[in-house]
């Protein structure tokens, strides 16, 4: 495994496992949660040490249970989770800082842990002043060592600027969609300039023809999926691909023994 380093010096695996459909009856995001830990156990067996979950996925408990059941040791696993935000539903429309405290405590309890490695605000808050108030709660938990790193998700450049202009502790990551056809160059470049780690969600969520990617992969004995992940890695972007298949989980980690050329990096 290779690692990136967050602005506070914390090492983070360069590939993690997405989880948004884990522990669900049909293995689909919207299907019923039944708490099974099969996918987490399979991912840990495949070699994953980073999991990306969120309160809104409704599966933090299964992620925590899977980590415990695996015997891997909490200290050897990096957990990302996220605070549900006001534009994700009415339930947060009138949130005050104390509600953010409750959300963090709820995630800690569900994950059965006393710290979270990287805690993110899931979506832009929709109100700059309120976003800063909520961010102060994250800063406070960071000061106390409960959140080892703090960041955001789906924040645009103006959303990031608002926090950067008003924060005491700068966001350390922005989790955004990065996939073929959605390179999100502007945010990625801004993040890199500001020392914010870009994290790519949905790296395989695209409909483009996979043939040009597979042609590149064939030169190295790799799949189109591995080309996508390798490209992100070479661009300094952490990827969190999700798979319910042990074979795919292993394949998605096996990207550190080849190097794409500058021309190949420009294919999407
Ligand atoms: N911050 C946010 O707002 C946000 C939004 C969306 C997602 N996320 C996070 O990002 C994670 C990943 O995104 P995602 O789950 O939407 O989609 P994704 O990882 O882009 O794609 C998942 C799909 O790709 C397939 N797949 C995985 N590895 C493959 C391989 N090597 N070859 C071929 N197909 C492969 C999977 O099928 P199999 O199961 O059959 O392998 C699954 O159908 C999520 O699980 C979640 O943790 C965050």
Features:
single chain, alpha/beta, TIM Barrel, two-stranded antiparallel ribbon, 10 helices, binds NADP nicotinamide-adenine-dinucleotide phosphate
- The arrangement of helices and strands along the chain is EEEHEHEHEHEHEHEHHEHH
Task: Tell me the number of helical segments per DSSP (H or I, 4 or more residues long).
Answer: 10
- The tally of structural domains comes to 1
CATH superfamily: NADP-dependent oxidoreductase domain
What is the 3D form?
Answer: globular
Arithmetic mean of pLDDT = 95
Explain how this protein is built.
By secondary structure, this protein is α/β, with parallel strands linked by helices. The protein has one domain: Alpha-Beta Barrel (TIM Barrel), CATH 3.20.20.100. Helix content is 39%, strand content 14%. The chain has an eight-stranded parallel beta sheet. Helix 5 links the parallel strand 7 and strand 8. It is globular, with a radius of gyration of 18 Å. It starts with a strand and ends with a helix. The relative contact order is 0.14. The model has no long low-confidence stretch (mean pLDDT 95). The site of NADP nicotinamide-adenine-dinucleotide phosphate (NAP) has 23 residues, from helix 9.
């Amino acid at each position: 495994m290779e690692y990136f380093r967050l602005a506070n010096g914390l090492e983070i695996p360069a590939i993690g496992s997405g989880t948004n459909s884990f522990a669900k009856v049909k293995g689909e995001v919207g299907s019923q949660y039944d708490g099974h830990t099969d996918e987490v156990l399979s991912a840990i067996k495949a070699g994953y040490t980073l999991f990306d979950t969120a309160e809104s996925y409704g599966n933090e408990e299964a992620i925590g249970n899977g980590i415990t059941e695996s015997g891997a040791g909490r200290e050897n696993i990096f957990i990302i989770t996220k605070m549900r935000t006001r534009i994700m539903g009415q339930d947060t429309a009138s949130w005050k800082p104390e509600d953010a405290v409750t959300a963090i405590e709820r995630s800690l309890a569900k994950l059965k842990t006393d710290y979270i490695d990287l805690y993110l605000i899931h979506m832009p808050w929709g109100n700059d002043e309120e976003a800063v108030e909520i961010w102060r709660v994250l800063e406070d938990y960071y000061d106390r060592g409960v959140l080892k790193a703090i960041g955001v998700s789906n924040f645009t450049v103006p959303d990031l600027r608002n926090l950067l202009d008003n924060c005491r502790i700068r966001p350390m990551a922005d989790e955004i969609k990065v996939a073929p056809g959605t390179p999100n160059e502007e945010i990625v470049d801004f993040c890199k300039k500001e020392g914010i780690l870009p994290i790519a969600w949905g790296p395989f969520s695209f409909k483009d023809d996979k043939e040009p990617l597979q042609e590149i992969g064939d030169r190295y004995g790799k799949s189109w999926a591995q080309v996508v992940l390798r490209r992100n890695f070479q661009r300094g972007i952490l990827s969190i691909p999700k798979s319910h298949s042990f074979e795919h989980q292993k394949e998605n980690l096996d990207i550190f023994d080849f190097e794409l050329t500058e021309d190949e990096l420009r294919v999407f």
